Amino acid sequence: MTRVKTWNLMEIDAPGGTVDPTVLMTDDGTRAIAIRLEPGQELRDHQVRERAWVVVVEGEVEIVSGDDRVSGRPGTLVTFDPRERHAIASATGGRLLLILAPWPGPGHYPGGPGGS
């Protein structure tokens, strides 16, 4: 029995780009999500209740949080504190790996675990 789980982030299909992210796994308080940005798509200014880790897997993206701007290329890793507002856009398209922890963060599901 194989215990190691693997994914090829370059082959995961998300035909709708940001409207069709792929949850790779939810386990032990963490959620991993693959997101593809089609050219011109963006994840508009938003926040999540968890710490967010974003890895640029392919393409180039512009990452904005407050007054900070980062041009991300493959291999770039950024992190956001819980509830920190941020946006990610790509003029040419790209692929991201998003990791949220702890999952779900307090208040993620109103009335649910950690809900308020």
Q: Would you mind describing this structure in some detail?
A:
This protein is mostly beta strands and 116 residues long. The protein has a single domain (17-101), classed as Jelly Rolls (Sandwich). It has no helices and nine strands. The protein has strands at 22-27, 30-37, 42-46, 51-59, 61-65, 68-72, 77-80, 86-89, 94-101. A hairpin with a 2-residue loop joins strand 1 (22-27) and strand 2 (30-37). The termini are far apart. 18% of the residues are buried. The model has no long low-confidence stretch (mean pLDDT 88).
Brief synopsis:
Helix content is 0%, strand content 47%.
Task: Supply database-style keywords.
116 residues; mainly beta; Jelly Rolls; 5-stranded antiparallel β-sheet; 4-stranded antiparallel β-sheet; 9 strands; globular
Poorly predicted residue ranges? none
What is the number of domains?
Answer: 1
At CATH's second level, what is the architecture?
Answer: Sandwich
Based on Cα principal axes, name the global outline. Answer: globular
CATH top-level class: Mainly Beta
Biggest sheet: strands, sense, closure? 5 strands, antiparallel
Helicity, as a percent range: under 10%
Query: What order do the helices and strands follow?
Result: EEEEEEEEE
- Cα distance spanning the termini: 40 Å
Instruction: Give a count of the beta strands, DSSP E runs of length 2 or more.
Output: 9
The tally of helices reads 0
Structural class per helix/strand content? mainly beta
Q: If you average the pLDDT, what whole number results?
A: 88
